[in-house]
Amino acid sequence: MTANPEMDEDPRSCDELNTSEDGDYCGSDEGTSEESSDDDTDDEGVDAHHVDDGMIRYTLNRVIADDGSLSCPPIWSEVGNDDFFDEEAARIDGAPVGVREFVVPSPAFMELSSEALQPLNENAMIPLRSLWNEGAEFQKGMRFMCKVDIQHAVKLYSIKEHRRFVVTHSTPNVWIVRCKKYVDGCTWRLRCSRRKSHGMFEISKYAGPHTCIYADFSKDHAHLDSTVICREVENVVRRDPSISVPVLHQMIKDKYSYDVRYKKVWLGKKKAIAKVYGDWEESYKMLPRWMAALQETNPGTRVEWRHGEPNANNEVIFKWVFWAFEPSIAGFRHCRPIIQIDGTFLYGKYKHKLLIATVVDSNSHVFPLAFAIVDEESQHSWGWFMACLRHHVTDRDGICVISDRHPGILLAMNNPQNGWTRERAHH
């Protein structure tokens, strides 16, 4: 309970004030209820302190002697209850003593255990000087979450100061750098290491700022590499993955006043995309899980795989995958018996091809039917795709197939095992 600012002259606690010299408690309900009357509460507006909001509120009444000392213990009484307010004890020479209102803390606050604050006492809080602002000088004792963070901070500092540094020692737990012109007398150096007490990287030694002078500046900066650019453009790429490299290049130039090479920005965007969406290897590893989730959430969806021979590490090599959604399969019964097939290449690290089969519905709208990802357009890949289309999607005869007459498509259509010969379809 917060102390009343008007009672600071008496250091005794409430329990001490409500207890007489012989140990008896003076503020009990007995002894005050018989002397009060119904008319006492109307005098001096005692009820004005009562707020009917469901909270238990109390008034503290104290009596001050002529010499300014506390002549008797204060009397605690519940506001709004006329039977527990002693007006005579709250007056001196007919003048009312100040009445103060207190709110009883909630049980959750009163029952708060100090053990909850124990972890804060055991681990010292990070001081304000441990926070580094971009462009500011470093200080001994500054902490960073990991080695990557301190490396990024030193690179940004060097870019802002138009200086360069070299790494003299680097291990998973220690990183030491110094100015590139240390042979010319520059004393700038920095040492940081991981502390066992808090697990973060802390600057243990620092000598700065730089004392060297660069007579000329280049258009590019060695420390403005693709890793720094990745962190700068990560949020932009997250919002718009299709943003062009020239736009990102101009953003870096406007911020750092350096005209970095195009390849750096391209690599920085590539790393940002991998950081946001995962790299190519991880994406391909997630493909089986994605297909399984597709079948789980879309009952009736057809998926068929074709894998290559396992490698030396006994890893399965992805080759082809075919899928068709159940709504597409069911909807084809109500579409025109004309199928268009085509293939297109995919952008990315692995140059796979996407094979597509579409139809036209009764509203003359394109209706997707089936898809497949293959390594290349060939007789075998098109033959496998058309066989899956016949097996999983439709066994109707007399369907017209439209294509660009790719050599692989022509051979696949003429293969009786695929089910699209002249007896069953038109091409």
What features would you describe in this structure?
- The protein has eleven helices and 17 strands.
- The longest helix is centred in the last third of the chain and has 18 residues.
- The chain has four domains: 105 residues, no CATH class; 80 residues, no CATH class; 52 residues, no CATH class; 144 residues, no CATH class.
- It is an alpha+beta fold and 427 residues long.
- The chain has a seven-stranded mixed β-sheet with strand order 11-12-15-14-13-16-17, with helices on both faces. The protein has a five-stranded antiparallel β-sheet with strand order 6-10-9-8-7. Strands 2-1-5 form a three-stranded antiparallel β-sheet, with no helix packed on it.
Can you give keywords for this protein?
427 residues, five-stranded antiparallel beta sheet, Transposase_MuDR, 11 helices, 4 domains, alpha+beta
Topology of this protein?
Elements: H1 14-17, E1 57-64, E2 70-78, E3 91-92, E4 95-96, E5 100-103, H2 107-110, H3 118-122, E6 143-144, H4 147-161, E7 165-170, E8 174-179, E9 189-194, E10 201-207, H5 226-239, H6 245-256, H7 262-277, H8 280-297, E11 302-307, E12 318-324, H9 326-331, E13 338-345, E14 353-360, E15 366-374, H10 379-393, E16 399-402, H11 407-413, E17 425-426
Parallel strand pairs: 13-16, 16-17
Antiparallel strand pairs: 1-2, 1-5, 3-4, 6-10, 7-8, 8-9, 9-10, 11-12, 12-15, 13-14, 14-15
Helix pairs in contact: 5-7, 6-7, 10-11
